[in-house]
Amino acid sequence: xxxxxxxxxxxxxxxxxxxxxxxxxxxxxxxRARTEYLRALGFEQDALRASxxxxxxxxxxxxxxxAPARFNDLLWVSAELTxxxxxxxxxxxxxxxxxxxxxxxxxxxRIACLDAVSFRPRPMPDQLSDYIKHEF
Length: 136
Known about the structure:
By secondary structure, the chain is of the alpha+beta class. It has one domain: Hotdog Thioesterase (Thiol Ester Dehydrase, Chain A), CATH 3.10.129. A hairpin with a 3-residue loop joins β3 and β4.
């Protein structure tokens, strides 16, 4: 599964005074979709840290805001794996209103696999990398 989609509702706390999603909150929606993507593959991030001593961190992100999401919108958020390396992977992500195909916001996100103690890059565990390579 290289592509994943998940739904989220926009709450008042996600918006600015005008009822529009605050720009930084799109990153939260994208983060949640990537977490749900890993969960759908059978990998919980807390278990990866406890069992393998790794964690994931955003290395870089480029966001394109096209149109605003608003209070109470039901959104789809996608995460598509676009590149996989031993110690990092990249996603193309998009977000739009449920029932509409046009994306309101898109992002290119690169994730690094880090040692949970030193925060230095390290290869992903074989169990995870073998699974993702097979799907990719």
